[in-house]
Amino acid sequence: ATQGFNHLPGAVVGDQNITARIGKPLVLNCRGAPKKPPQQLEWKLNTGRTEAWKVLSPQGGPWDSVARVLPNGSLLLPAVEIQDEGTFRCRATSRNGKETRSTYQVRVYQIPGKPEIVDPVSELVTGVPNKVGTCLSEGGYPAGTLNWHWDGKPLIPDGKGISVQEETRRHPETGLFTLQSVLTVTPTLGGAPHPTVSCSFSPDLPRHGALYTDPIQLSVWEPVPPELQLVVEPEGGIVAPGGTVTLTCETPAQSSLQIHWIKDGMPLPLPPNPVLLLSEVRPQDQGAYSCVATHPRHGPLESHAIHVHIIETEEGSTAGSVEGQGLGMVALALGILGGLGIAALLIGATKWQRQRRRGEQRKAPENEEEEEEHEELNQSEEPEAAEGSAAGP
Ligand SMILES: *[C@@H]1O[C@H](CO)[C@@H](O)[C@H](O)[C@H]1NC(C)=O
Ligand SMILES: *[C@@H]1O[C@H](CO)[C@@H](O)[C@H](O)[C@H]1NC(C)=O
């Protein structure tokens, strides 16, 4: 309907949002109306009190206590109520016959009293849910919201460590809202020992700031210092060179401790992380590892140490044989490059070695594969030495 005005020639569209405080007078001006009678104007309204559009008679009547047209053409609502929320329109014709329409969307509000925390506790215990208190805001409109703050930071309910139970009630006569919010927290281990908690009411209105309760000061009681458990993967901390070791520092659930790492008594310059990943380990990664956390109440906490050993395991020797083959290939390439003479010499030497070894292999057949490889490798580089080692055992 408002848009229709745009297409009327000579009509000035004045669509305005008004927020009026409950119980206070409100004056809406009829734009374009002559300041004094005789006037040609019409006020109509569609609010919580009307079923549809209601045209107000300029002569007054039963609606006078709700809204009446003033001599200057403005509309006065002596005391705004929730039922007065709605649309108000005036159509005025000036002395020279120009028509002007004004439209007002009226919303009402009431700022509640300062919210308060009722039944606050003074001491919380870590690791278990504690009811902190009930935040109460009475007499606001529209409903608005309650929010909790922990050391100045908003507490976002996560259903685990922080939970909030909210209830909204409406006064049967005034229609004003009562909000209540019960805060339950499970304080984290190692958190602030003396947090400050407050609650705020945020009105659902533009340009209106939040109202805060007086803060409450809490003491968080931590029965025992938390323990840090250090777990190593692979188990036993034994790894082949080039392998990966994962050290995990396990802190109790709901802990906010920051974990640093120590190797052989020296702090590792790494950002705090409960997991230490050593990948492609080298001999210098070997050592004793432990994790530490600085606890605000109990001081530094350190886990037991775990030793990481870098050892050629069975997997390591497989790697060794791959390396051997690689060198064999290099040797072969060198042989080709070196010319037929050297190649012939190598082949001859190899044949000779193999024939020689066949005799020995009868003594130790189980080592056949491994020995052959080692010999080929050594031989191709230094046939003399290979001969010696082959003859050795
Ligand atoms: C009035 O409020 C409505 C929402 O309630 C908004 O969409 C509109 O833009 C506002 N109009 C003006 C003129 O501020
Ligand atoms: C009309 O009179 C009322 C009350 O005296 C005043 O608040 C309002 O601003 C006046 N309207 C105009 C358009 O002057």
TrEMBL record:
What is the organism field in this record?
Suricata suricatta (Meerkat)
UniProt-annotated stretches for the region Disordered: 353-393
Query: Is-annotated flag, keyword Isomerase?
Result: no
Citing just one GO molecular function, the answer is:
signaling receptor activity
Name this protein carries in UniProt: Advanced glycosylation end-product specific receptor
Disulfide bond among keywords: yes
Q: Which residues form the Ig-like domain?
A: 9-107, 226-307
Question: Which chain regions cross the lipid bilayer?
Answer: 327-348
**What keywords does the record list, in alphabetical order?**
Cell projection, Disulfide bond, Glycoprotein, Immunoglobulin domain, Membrane, Repeat, Transmembrane, Transmembrane helix
Gene3D superfamilies in the cross-refs:
Immunoglobulins (2.60.40.10)
Where it mainly occurs, coarsely classed, is other
Q: Which CDD domains match?
A: Ig
Subcellular localization, as worded in the UniProt entry: Cell projection; Membrane
Provide the topology term for how it sits in the membrane. Single-pass type I membrane protein
